[in-house]
Amino acid sequence: MSVEFIAPSNSPEKPPENLTLESTLKELAVFNFQIEASSLAKDVARLFQAHPLLPGVILTVNGEFLGMISRRRFMERMSRPFGVDIFACRPISALYQIAKTDILILPGIALIVMAAQRAVQRSPEQLYEPIVVQLAPQVYRLLDVHQVLVALSQIHQQATWYISELYYNLSVTQSELEAANSQLQSANSELYRLANSDGLTQVANRRCFNEYLEKQWQELEQETAELSLILCDIDFFKKFNDTYGHQAGDDCLQQVAKTIVEAVNCSAGEVSGEMLVARYGGEEFAVILPRTSPEIAVSIAEQIRVWVKKLEIENIKSPVCCCVTLSLGVATTVPRPEISEKDLIAAADRSLYVAKDAGRDRAILGTIKLD
Question: What pTM was computed for the model?
Fold first, then answer.
């Protein structure tokens, strides 16, 4: 097993400075994680656990490139019913044959702007699959799509400065400059949306959730204001997938996400801060509520629960109800130095499991436990 990360020492997602329209993929930080296809799936699981930023692994046979399996596809297969029992002690090649999909392989000399275009033109299911970069014959590396989008955003910023120089040096008309700036702003907005939203449900992704929670924590600590968090989990979603298939499961996730957003927006008048709905995990969603009391947070959670249940999405294998339901955990705190965002998440997670143990289809308020 080859395990090597080729990147700046501190931040693998920070692109190099002074990128231009002529910059290529080989200028970006890449991951070099290669394993023989005969390696056991459980060893790959340990690799992902040890390297949380690793987007996937490259598979080889006797040192020759075989393919790539992303973290997302690996975890999806392993988390299915009996997935661990079936694959953990088998070669990773067995799981790869089932989970493999089209791989975007680009040469290291490919322009970043071209690579970003190729990446976002993929289907929604493949949108966040890592890119395989070929630096030389039989020399392959992995590149996180998010890093490509961040790099492209920097290139757009450089292009903005270039347009400004054209304005002064070549007497570009004001109308032409405004049109060019408008196009750049639109492109940057789309790049931001792609980098921070979940490809399936179109709500914020886990990365955006983490950044927003940290930002609100810092702001509300200074204000000594309350911060509430709701974690939502679709009850018996694995049984739903097994019964109706994964396409129906994707449709269900999209409907639930849309309904959560609508329910939260309907309560906007009760919250004096910008709320965020994010996909937290496979069938889990999270709602960040700045400056929100526990009473209002529980009220919003209950509204989410009722609205999702009213969708009446059939789930005949659910022991709770004949339709899709949610269990919700709620936690509220005033951010302060002796606790962290992780404590708030842990409290909401404990409340969620209390709701599940109590019979599901309910919202439970919890408290933060200090060590």
Answer: 0.56
Contact indicator for 55, 142 with CB cutoff of 8 Å: yes
Beta pairing partners, 329: 231, 364
DSSP result, 215-283: HHHHHHHHHT--EEEEEEEETTHHHHHHHH-HHHHHHHHHHHHHHHHHHHHHTGGG-SS--EEEE-SSS
196 vs 284, more confident: 284
Q: State how far the Cα of 144 lies from the Cα of 131, in Å rounded to an integer.
A: 7
Of the candidates 289, 231, 302, 291, which has an alpha carbon nearest to the alpha carbon of residue 263?
302
Share of the chain above pLDDT 90, in %: 52
- Say how far apart CA 168 and CA 309 lie, in whole Å: 60
Token code pair at residue 74: 């690996």
Q: Please state, in angstroms and rounded to a whole number, the distance separating the CA atoms of residues 284 and 237.
A: 10
Catalytic residue IDs:
283
| pLDDT per residue as tens digits for the range 111-165 | 988 888 888 888 887 888 999 999 988 899 999 888 888 888 888 887 777 767 6
